[in-house]
Amino acid sequence: MKNNRNLIVVFAIGIICIVSAVIVYAIDSGKSDETIDWDVTLVGVDGRERMISYADIKAMPSISGKGGFFTSVGVINGPFDLKGVPVTDICDLVGGISSDEIVYLYAVDGYSAVFDYEQITGDIDTYDIETMKLIPHDDLRVILAYEQNGKLLSHEYGKPLRLAVIAGENLLTEGHHWVKWIDQIEIVKLN
After folding, report:
1. 20 and 40, same domain (yes or no)
2. 21 and 66: one domain?
3. Which residues of 134-156 are buried (b: 16+ CB within 10 A; e: fewer)?
4. Domain enclosing residue 12, as ranges
5. Spatial contact of 125 and 133, defined as CB atoms under 8 Å apart
6. Predicted model pTM
7. pLDDT per position as a tens digit, 45-59
8. By C-alpha distance, which of 82, 38, 44, 79 is closest to 62?
9. SS3 per-residue string spanning 120-174
């Protein structure tokens, strides 16, 4: 009898845990983008700082395109349908970027990347999805993405904001360009 009672208690605890997990998942999945509390610090070449919220970024004019990347070990991610704001437009909020400046992008996990003017304006190597050979591209854009395949980014893919490289066609770029969890963008003059 005691074993049956213990079994019932364990079963009840298991059911409670499962129901709790489902509720937490439903609540988190149901969050609208307006409830995302995330700020990005922008630093202009003159040292001027400005905080911009996730909601502010979502309110800016956006663009969409296709993009994907491959990791250093050759794992292909995408291509995805992505939506976001061009990084050049975000840089304009603190004075813009010129050809003698570079952009640092920082993530909350400590990762950072540096882009020169040509890269931030779309001069990045692109690769064919099938052959992985370099191919030319038209109208490549570097964006601060917040949406992938019609949904908000998942945490795995950089929620709420990540750097992405998009075009009008299915192309791949190197994964180190796709910085996740961006929380600071800084423009610096080259020496």
Report:
1. no
2. no
3. eeebeebbbbbbbbbeeebbeee
4. 1-30
5. no
6. 0.79
7. 999 999 999 999 999
8. 82
9. HCCCCCEECCCCCCEECCCCCEEEEEEEECCEECCHHHCCCCEEEEEECCCCEEE
